[in-house]
Amino acid sequence: MLSGDTDAFRLLVREYRLMIRSYVGSQLHRSDETDDLSQEVFMSAYRNLDQFDLDGDFGAWLRGIARNKLLMHFRTTQRRSQRESKFREEVAQLLEYDLEKIFVRQSDFAIEALLRCISKLPDRMRHVVREGLDGTKAAALAEELSTSLGAIYNLNYRASSLLRECVKAEME
Q1: CA distances from 132 to 27, 128, 136, 152, 165 (A)
Q2: Would you say 73 and 37 are in contact if contact means Cβ atoms under 8 Å apart?
Q3: In angstroms, rounded to a whole number, what is the distance separating the alpha carbons of residues 22 and 54?
Q4: pLDDT category, 34, cuts 50, 70, 90?
Q5: pLDDT-derived band at 4, boundaries 50, 70, 90
Q6: For residue 160, how many other CB atoms are within 10 A of its CB?
Q7: Quick one: three-class SS letters along 135-161?
Q8: Given 3-state DSSP classes, what are the helix, strand and coil percentages for the chain, each rounded to the nearest 5?
Q9: Which of 61, 83, 141, 170 gives 20 to 30 Å between its CA and that of 76?
Q10: What is the pLDDT of residues 96-155, one digit of tens each?
Q11: Which of 162, 121, 156, 122 lies closest to 142 in space, CA to CA?
């Protein structure tokens, strides 16, 4: 009856498209996927009209096709997601070692540059920086150098500025 009759099938699509789109849309969250899958349902139904029992419920038959299309969609999506996840893990493992080597090399180079720059500081600033790196409290350092706490903070600030500029120049 319907086999090859595109006009009759077009009428059926109009009648059932909202039902199928609602059914598919209730399972999917993206409208573009809903539209694509709904269209696949109707294309599959058209290609397989000869399998429809004319005494059967056409809407139920379409929902069955939609259910199968959804299952296939979920399986494909899950497999794709698993492949992408595995790919990301493999890439991360491959890059991890190389990135770590680069980081260590850069860290070593930066530390060497910092040590060279510290050695270029005036004696009093170099002493403040070294004591700070060793964990000496600013108050204890002020007492040791017979100066104020503000002077220690000021020396530390100026030393940090000079070191930042020096390390930047060395790294370029």
Answers
A1: 62, 6, 5, 10, 19
A2: yes
A3: 24
A4: very high
A5: low
A6: 13
A7: CCCHHHHHHHCCCCHHHHHHHHHHHHH
A8: 85, 0, 15
A9: 61
A10: 777 777 677 777 788 888 888 999 999 999 898 888 888 888 888 889 999 998 999 889
A11: 156
